[in-house]
Amino acid sequence: MRFDIILHSLGYLLRAAAVTVALSLAGIALGFVIGALVCAARRSGDRFLRRLGGFYVSFFRGVPLLVQLLFIYYFLAEYGLDVPAVVAAIGGLGLASGAYQAEILRGALNATPAGQAEAATALGFAPFDIWRRILLPQALRIAAPPLINEFILLLKASSLVSVVGIAELTRVSMNIASMTYRPFEAYLAGGMIYLAINLCLAAFGAFAERRLAAGGST
Amino acid sequence: MSFAVLLHYLPSLIAGFGVTVLCWSAGSILGLAIGFAVALLNRLPAPPLRWLLRAYVEILRGTPFLVQLFLLYAGGPYIGLRLSATAAGILGLGLYSSAYFAEIFRAGFAAVPQGQIEAAMSVGMTPGDILWRVTLPIALASTVPAIVNMLVILSKETVVLSIITVPELMYQMQTMAAETFTAFDAIFAMAIFYWLLVEAVSRVGRRLEIKLTAFMAREASA
A44 to chain B nearest CA, in Å? Predict the structure, then answer.
């Protein structure tokens, strides 16, 4: 094994890791917005909207992410839309993550006792205030650990974006592997960087969980 | 996409689906076996072994499946591991899923009430008998939903094998798309196909789950 190769290209790998983190952050943020909308649709009184939300979750959780990513690329090409690859990649990650986050949020809202909203209604809170002051703070506390978990999953899933040519961590590992003819060292280094990021995220998740739990008891 | 084109490529698509099913089933069985072994070894009172197993699980769960596949298929020959694409795909799927299965089994073992084991000891069962007749049945029954869920996830992960040129369905479909310039139709068909497949597998899984855990419900109500 030749670890001097890794050391030599560590700068590229770290820059690529930053791209991976940025892609995942953008994907999770877009996914949260989509997830909140889909969750609202699934909880709405309108039957059509509920069906639509259910269909969204079923489709985006049922189709492999690689197929979704390629679908977006070919769809854009078919209709002549010239969108930068990065935008398409973030869109793909966000659409897929939205389905999972919708379910996380739905579960968290279901776990919030109905009596809370009823009590707020009885006290004369406006519907928006009930959301902002009663439901969301409690739901987000429940949803935080699974959301961090979803972020870790998305960070790993973002490796698939390499297939469509974005210079994130996996793609740069591939490039280093083919430039140096040392694929073992290159992928090992790439994998270890993913692992380091994910362990940090998991540690942050555990910390956040403790803090939120402490807040809940007071 | 014309019907004639599809008909022409039908044999290779069917063959591709066969490889998909092969990789999925063989990878899952391998993952279940390794995962079960890891969970069992984890119960031994040997801290260094436990740390090693913990590292195994964390490394496999903390790195992307695609990177693991590249390491195995492209990096393998550099450490003397020469595998065909399909073999690397099955081994990769097995190793990747084994970490998740190990966690599922670990949770299953943790869910066995201590009182059951104490009761078995007090009626004089041997440690082997307790494991085989008390711990395992209870632990395994409680893991069925999580295992079914993981199998569904793995059925989707097989698509990633196309990147290391395993000739499964996605790979065959992309070959067809490249040769006939029907990329959009092909990928659209793939999305619908996998969606239906995953829905069907989930449904069958839920049925199986109800059947396999029926005795638990009976016990709970009795």
Answer: 24
